[in-house]
Design a protein that fits this description.
There is one protein chain. The chain has 29 helices and 27 strands. It has about 750 residues and is an alpha/beta fold. The strands form 7 sheets. Strands 11, 12, 13, 14, 15, 16, 17 and 18 form an 8-stranded mixed sheet that branches. A hairpin with a 3-residue loop joins strand 23 (about 700-705) and strand 24. The longest helix has 24 residues, at about 465-485. InterPro entries: DExx_box_DNA_helicase_dom_sf (IPR013986), DNA_helicase_UvrD-like_C (IPR014017), DNA_helicase_UvrD/REP (IPR000212), P-loop_NTPase (IPR027417), UvrD-like_ATP-bd (IPR014016). Belongs to the helicase family. UvrD subfamily. Keywords: ATP-binding, DNA-binding, Helicase, Hydrolase, Isomerase, Nucleotide-binding. This is DNA 3'-5' helicase.
Length: about 750
């Protein structure tokens, strides 16, 4: 056991003097169960690290007697650095880290209890999938009908719930793989043990099982670890909850820090009930509420608090401003005619902020769904505003968009070998390394494109790959005919459907798959903004050439989920419309619980802003080339009128709005629906207005791709424009708007 850290000679202990009364109470309440409800911007990290240091400085615990758990390695490093700074020396011998890192350390000491040795290997995602496919193939499972990704997702959900194969009850079971999922899970775990391996989920599952079945091991750890600190408790899943409860049940010295109003990760297995039932799990627990927010202005806090108060599943707290300069602008709610005007509004306001000296790095655009970034990315590129996408790739860099682009490149240019090579086996068509090598050999020997070489290769393939490849090659011939008959938008949607690419993502059961499908829908929408396939491909090539240097002053673009824990002076929150936010899928799958999580996500978004929050909604969005009415988000009506400033060009009318009879349902294809009636707070929607008066030379206009310019000549509906940031162009008047 390491020596205790010395108590400083100065009696002032100024590290406590820097805390407000709520924070100090949270730090100094050392014994028994403590729940610290830390609202956004209330100094959660300071409280957690100060409490950790106070345990050591007061002599209540040795460094090795405190277990401190975080969700990320970054948070663990920051905590270690802050604790060391308070102590005045490096903090050594700590049990500080992520759930999985700490369980890996524990498991190496007790691996024999779960059939492993201490030298076990932790498999990465690719190796896990490869092993599971082997298990499924050995059991005679058709991997095309039952993709391994779907079963792996189910296995990880079981592990997140602390369920080993023998503890999966009929109620927890699934009909995946014709009811064989539980048996396949057991076979997968058996193969892992045979190989002396475990996957990421096993780290917590195995340790929890050891604690549950080996009371002497659990008792030893309970004696070792006298105090437990947990960060972001609202994000814990069930197996993490079980692990913590087992460790804390003897001494009950557990302190959990979290915010039930920021629980937004149920799709990753997080259980908000863990924090809601803390007082029931630990009777006589002390609950300390941190409500003084040092980040945001009063109007921002009022808007966030008023909104989140509509949730019933919460412990309750009200943020109040702790800043001396807490007055500020009201939260702006901007109503716009359509999604294109929304992107222009955001871009123009950012330009104005920049001109007034506002740093771009202190501006963020926070979207509900990843596909929304495209419109803003293209607008920012047109305006020459540098940006970075946080927590994800830029729109045209995403794998599914690159795949879709490759299909369209082959459609436009059959000799594009790089594009053909990318999609010829995506989705899988049974072409192995040998077939691909032979295709390249034929292409080189005869100096022909890969697509032509594929035709030559067909007779030499076995039945399944020959049929699949033949269908793809004949499909391209059919889709090229469709280009002239149906146009590039319909053809592209048909291609993605008939090639099996859309279906591949529909069958994928990973959490990312729905977002990829949404991105493909947005990809088709983007096509509708261009007169031809060639024009679209040229546009994307130019976008991809945009300077990718991440250095310098640039604004941030990200999803609301990726924004948690971050803060900016100015935050734009676009797309607050029913179906988009709150998201239709979240409500369909989660019902009232799903709606409450969406509201928590809105709360997280608003509380990222220090000085200004600008929320926007569009009355119309383009869907599959057509304009469709959007209904304002119910969250807009839940904002407090006294702290909101409403702006914008859209006409609001509380009347019934009939939904368009055709709606876009996938990356390709239309699905007819009977018109339904939408109640309450919908915008009055008309067809998109045409130019009431013909454009004239000298008028200033706007084009989505080329930006602003002045009309120099008019020839019927063909307009010559001298663009400010591009060469002069001749374009159709339907693609121009008066600026």
């Amino acid at each position: 056991m390491s020596a205790p850290l010395p108590t400083p000679s100065s009696p002032g202990d100024d590290y406590l003097a820097r805390l407000n009364p709520e924070q100090r109470e949270a730090v100094e309440t050392l014994d028994g169960p403590v729940l610290i409800l830390a609202g956004a911007g209330t100094g959660k990290t300071r409280v957690l690290t100060t409490r950790f240091a106070h345990l050591l400085k007061s002599g209540r615990a040795w460094p090795g007697q405190v277990l401190a758990v975080t969700f990320t390695n970054k948070a663990a490093r920051e905590m270690r650095e802050r604790v060391s700074a308070i102590l005045g020396q490096p903090a050594e011998g700590l049990w500080l880290g992520t759930f999985h890192a700490l369980c890996a350390r524990m498991l190496r000491r007790h691996a024999e209890f779960v059939g492993l040795t201490s030298a076990f290997t932790i498999l990465d995602t690719d190796d896990q999938m490869r092993l599971l496919k082997q298990v499924m193939e050995a059991a005679g499972i058709d991997l095309k009908r039952w993709p391994a990704q779907g079963l792996m997702g189910q296995i990880q959900r079981w592990k997140d719930r602390g369920l080993a194969p023998d503890r999966v009850t009929p109620a927890e079971d699934t009909d995946y793989a014709a009811g064989k999922a539980r048996g396949l899970y057991a076979a997968y775990q058996s193969r892992l043990r045979d190989l002396n391996c475990c996957d990421f989920g096993d780290l917590m599952l195995h340790v929890t099982e050891i604690f549950r079945t080996r009371p002497e091991v659990l008792a030893d750890w309970q004696r070792r670890l006298r105090y437990i600190l947990v960060d972001e408790y609202q994000d814990t899943n069930l197996v993490q909850y079980y692990w913590l409860r087992l460790l804390a049940q003897s001494h009950r010295n557990i302190c959990c820090v979290g915010d039930d109003d920021q629980s937004i990760y149920s799709w990753r297995g997080a259980e908000i009930e863990n924090i809601l039932r803390f007082e029931k799990d630990f009777p006589n627990a002390k609950v300390v509420r941190l409500e003084s927010n040092y980040r945001s202005t009063k109007p921002i806090l009022a808007a966030a608090s008023h909104l989140i108060a509509h949730n019933s599943g919460r412990l309750g707290k009200t943020l109040r401003a702790g800043r001396n300069d807490a007055e500020g602008d009201k939260v702006r709610v901007v109503s716009l005619w359509d999604s294109e005007e929304e992107a222009r509004m955001v871009g123009e306001r950012i330009e104005a902020f920049k001109r007034s000296g506002h740093k771009l790095a202190e501006i963020a655009i926070l979207v509900r769904a990843g596909f929304q970034t495209r419109a803003f990315e293209e607008r920012l590129i047109t305006l020459g505003l540098p940006y970075r996408v946080i927590g994800g790739l830029k729109f045209y860099e995403r794998a599914e968009i690159r795949d879709a682009m490759a299909y369209l490149r082959v459609l436009a240019q059959p000799a594009d070998d790089l594009a053909f090579e990318r999609i010829v086996n995506t989705p899988k068509r049974g072409l192995g390394d040998t077939a691909m090598r032979r295709m390249h050999e034929i292409a080189r020997a005869e100096s022909i494109p890969l697509a032509a070489a594929a035709h030559r290769l067909l007779p030499n393939l076995t039945a399944k790959p020959r049929a699949a490849l033949g269908e793809l090659l004949h499909g391209f011939a059919r889709w090229r005919e469709g280009l002239s008959k149906e146009g590039h938008v319909v053809t592209a949607a048909t291609l993605l459907d008939e090639s099996g690419y859309t279906e591949m993502w529909k069958q994928d059961k990973s959490p990312e798959a729905p977002g990829r499908l949404e991105n493909l829908k947005e990809f088709i929408r983007a096509l509708g903004e261009f007169e031809s396939l060639a024009g679209f491909l040229e546009h994307v090539a130019l976008v991809m050439e945009n300077d990718e240097n991440s250095e310098g002053d640039r604004l941030s673009l990200m999803t609301l989920h990726a924004a948690k824990g971050l803060e900016f002076d100015t935050v734009f929150l676009p797309g607050w419309e029913e179906g988009l936010f709150p998201h239709a899928r979240a409500m369909e799958e989660g019902g009232e619980k799903g709606l409450e999580e969406e509201r928590r996500l809105a709360y997280v978004g608003i509380t990222r802003a220090r000085k200004q929050a600008i929320i926007s909604a569009a009355a119309n969005r383009r869907i599959y080339g057509n304009w469709s009415a959007s209904v304002p988000s119910r969250f807009l009506e839940e904002l407090p009128a006294a702290h909101i400033q409403r702006e914008g060009s859209a006409s609001m009318a509380r009347q019934r709005v009939a939904e368009m009879p055709s709606v876009f349902t996938g990356a390709g294809g239309l699905q007819s629906r009977k018109p339904r009636v939408i109640e309450a707070g919908a915008w009055e929607v008309q067809s998109r207005p045409s130019h009431a008066q013909p454009l004239k030379p000298g008028e200033r206009v706007f084009h989505k791709k080329f930006g602003y310019g002045r009309v120099t000549a008019v020839d019927d509906n063909r307009i010559e424009v001298d663009f400010e940031k591009s060469d002069p162009k001749r374009v159709l008047d339907s693609f121009l708007e008066r600026a």
